[in-house]
Specification:
The structure is a single chain. With 238 residues, the protein is an alpha/beta fold. It contains nine helices and seven strands, in the order αααβαβαββαβαααββ. A seven-stranded mixed beta sheet has the order 3-2-1-4-5-7-6, sandwiched between helices. The protein starts with 5 loop residues before the first helix and ends with a strand. The structure holds S-adenosylmethionine. The site of S-adenosylmethionine has 22 residues, from helix 1 and helix 4. S-adenosylmethionine binds next to helix 1 and helix 4.
Length: 238
Amino acid sequence: MVQLKGNDRSAFVASMFGRISRRYDLLNTLMTVGMHYIWRRNAAKLAATHVSGDILDVASGTGDFAFDLLKHSNVEIVVGLDFSPEMLNVAISKSVKLGLDGRFIPVIGDAHLLPFSEERFASVTVGFGVRNFSDLPKALADIVRVTRRGGKVTVLEIVRPRGRLASVLFLRYFRWMTPKLGRFFAGDYEAYKYLPESVQNFMSVTQLSEILEGAGLRNLVVETKGMGSIAIISGERS
Ligand SMILES: C[S@@+](CC[C@H](N)C(=O)[O-])C[C@H]1O[C@@H](n2cnc3c(N)ncnc32)[C@H](O)[C@@H]1O
């Protein structure tokens, strides 16, 4: 599945997230023992600090990154873009329950072709999304295009941990545990088999940082969590 390219890969990813949308939050909590909430909160702090203006959350899914951004008093509006209507529907229901429906604006769209004008946003975030993009340099170029000069782009992502032992142990645990959790709690073994595969084929924090710099970001702040398996990288558009 991860070998798929271009539109085939996008269609596979959209359909997979559509199927698991109702169980996505629960499975995240089980797989990370609740840590995903803390990682997103850390990333949202970096993305929202000293920012004045609207924020775009790309690959917004069930909306948790957007809701963490909206907890910051200087953030009024977050646009949550995703190509899975099912994931965004869960986000919309949650935004109503949280009383954030006037400040969370859901948009169906593709990260590779953002329906926004140049420099529209003061800050752009992507949480656990970039690993799924079919053409990462293209999507990042469009993300940078819609970010104001001097504005921020913040990426939160699972990466291959540094060091051979940590990397092997992490990937073994992931490959062994996640499909079982997926089958039991979401009734979807295949979707949760994709997750470790996508990480195995993804990059290290150093490689991801280099790609973000290549896309035009400067003054990167890089943090790792989860024994090096989670990267939070924030940079400024030059
Ligand atoms: C792992 S979820 C992350 C959701 C959320 N950001 C979070 O922190 O939990 C990945 C999301 O990215 C979306 N996605 C993947 N590729 C995309 C693309 N090319 N354009 C828009 N959304 C995309 C999927 O539909 C899914 O909702």
